[in-house]
Q: What sequence folds into this?
């Protein structure tokens, strides 16, 4: 409990810094923020600029504005869209966040599900033909950006083979679950391919070091099967770096879905960010950036908690 408490205390200043910069975006806008947000034509309408200045508290200094904004955020009020009056940012998040979380969770789950067996087997067969082939494939996968993988998947699996639909989104129901899954395959592969390669290489390196330890050699000397030695004795102490990277990757994947959601037209947080940027909807963008940053910080907190659960020495320390 002390470890968890210390971790929570460490992230509080980080959350304050992140929230402050999220609220201070308006200071970076060129010229009159009201004109920038509304556009020249709408800004000339009677009372339009005054309304935006009042709603966004642009007549107050940045510290006062941050304190008022933070008070609203704590109560769940992230404001309303400047472009679509009456549409609350919290409602936008409620509608779109589950889609992005589903995409992120499936991509991270697939990355771990594939990379862990490959990393373990690659370490077990280090220097052999299989290990060399996996290393070559991982180098190739790391060099491919996510958007390029997505474009290649669309070209091959849709244009050439016509196996999968290229774009669009359907909600998961008992009637169209198969169509829902088919539309997720390409985005998930595009997101997870690089993560699989990175996870596999990291776990392989840690497993190679662990396999040289005395307790592993003792387990082998007792006649235990290679599978038992690898997964029961060597995998757990080799997984700390993987857990750290997985936590960081989870936060990065939420932010990385911006391009993939745009490419596959998935109505999640990432696609809404693009819409907010192109339409100069600062209030929506502030809320979404804060949301992604909070998730990133929370994932790192979960990593520290997982450390304490996996290694008793951290709890005692």
A:
């Amino acid at each position: 409990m002390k470890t968890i408490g210390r971790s929570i205390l460490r992230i509080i200043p980080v959350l304050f810094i992140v929230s402050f910069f999220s609220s201070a975006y308006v200071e970076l806008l060129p010229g009159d923020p009201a004109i920038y947000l509304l556009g020249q034509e709408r800004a000339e309408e009677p009372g339009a600029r005054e309304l935006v200045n009042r709603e966004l508290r642009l007549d107050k200094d940045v510290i006062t504005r941050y304190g008022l904004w933070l008070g609203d955020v704590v109560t769940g009020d992230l404001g309303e869209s400047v472009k679509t009056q009456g549409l609350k940012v919290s409602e936008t998040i409620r509608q779109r966040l589950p889609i992005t979380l589903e995409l992120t969770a499936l991509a991270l789950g697939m990355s771990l599900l594939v990379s862990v067996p490959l990393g373990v087997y690659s370490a077990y067969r280090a220097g052999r033909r299989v290990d060399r082939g996996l290393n070559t494939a991982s180098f190739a996968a790391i060099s491919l950006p996510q958007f390029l993988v997505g474009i290649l998947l669309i070209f091959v699996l849709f244009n050439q083979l016509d196996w999968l639909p290229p774009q669009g989104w359907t909600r998961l129901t008992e009637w169209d679950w198969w169509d829902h899954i088919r539309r997720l395959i390409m985005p998930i592969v595009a997101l997870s391919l690089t993560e699989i390669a990175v996870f596999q290489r990291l776990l392989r390196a840690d497993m190679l070091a662990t396999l040289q330890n005395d307790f592993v050699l003792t387990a082998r000397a007792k006649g235990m099967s290679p599978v038992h030695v690898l997964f029961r004795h060597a995998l757990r102490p080799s997984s700390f770096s993987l857990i750290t990277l997985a936590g960081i990757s989870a936060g990065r994947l939420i932010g990385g879905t911006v391009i993939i959601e745009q490419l596959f037209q998935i109505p999640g947080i990432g696609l809404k960010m693009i819409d907010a940027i192109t339409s100069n909807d600062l209030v929506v963008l502030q809320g979404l950036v804060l949301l992604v940053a909070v998730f990133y910080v929370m994932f790192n907190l979960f990593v520290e908690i997982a450390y304490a659960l996996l290694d008793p020495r951290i709890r005692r320390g």
